[in-house]
Amino acid sequence: MATIDAMGGITSAIITTTLVFMAVFIPVSLMGGTSGTFYTQFGITMAAAVGISAINALTLSPALCAMMLKPYLTEDGQAKRNFAARFRTAFNAAFTVVTNHYMGCVLFFIRRRAVNLGGILQRPVCV
Prior knowledge:
It is a single chain. By secondary structure, the chain is mainly alpha-helical. The chain is 80% helix and 0% strand. It contains four helices and no strands. It has helices at residues 2-29, 33-68, 83-111, 113-121. Helix 1 (2-29) packs antiparallel against helix 2. The radius of gyration is 25 Å and the shape is flat. The N and C termini lie far apart (64 Å).
């Protein structure tokens, strides 16, 4: 259900972006002259890659997300402890640690404006 809601919000953005990229690269493949000879394959390749990427973003990626993000529950309602659940738990714990460390560093520089000014006003040493 969450995948369907999320895709409802970004489907138009994916289609629009794909059409804009194709509108840029298809005319490049139709250029004449010497430069057109060089850019023909580039334009076709890029337009095809963007089209395939859009198909992937609209079909395969949401299906994989729906499969991977569904809750893993046993018959009695307890969470399973399989690889995906352990990976998610470890990832969330590591992400929380990194986020807290980053916030601590940012707060350090916010609270110590003199350190910031010293770094900004530092005169480069010329040899």
